[in-house]
Amino acid sequence: MKLNSYIQDFGVRPQKQNLEWSNQSHLKSSQQEFQADTWVHLLELPSTFSFDEALLLCQVSEDQWAAWIPNHGEVVLHTRQFCARF
């Protein structure tokens, strides 16, 4: 039996992929899904005793919301600090 030493080049050329989840189009679409009087899940707790959810009260700026957190009170949250409840 004779082995074929010729190997075809099936290599894949490396391509740069944008894996950054926080690109501008994603941020714009995620900001539009939030509305006042909506409960959201907190990614950062303001204190050990506060709840892990907050009620959005009103939008303060493009990327900030005034919110109420049970057992903590009113805060201004950046959109990076919360996500939609599941």
Uncertain segments: 21-31
Succession of helices and strands:
HEEEEE
Adjacency order of strands in the biggest sheet: 4-3-2-1-5
Structural class: mainly beta
- Continuous helix count: 1
Shape: globular
Please give the largest β-sheet: 5 strands, antiparallel
Give the distance, in angstroms, between the N- and C-terminal Cα atoms: 61 Å
Rg over C-alpha atoms, rounded to the nearest angstrom: 23 Å
**DSSP, total strands:** 5
Work out the helicity level.
10-25%
**Share in β-strands:** 25-35%
Provide the residue-averaged pLDDT.
77
Quick overview of this protein structure:
It contains one helix and five strands. It is mainly beta and 86 residues long.
Describe the model.
There is one protein chain. The radius of gyration is 23 Å and the shape is globular. A hairpin with a 2-residue loop joins strand 2 and strand 3. It is built from one helix and five strands. It has 86 residues and is mainly beta. Mean pLDDT is 77; it is low at 21-31. A five-stranded antiparallel beta sheet has the order 4-3-2-1-5, with no helix packed on it.
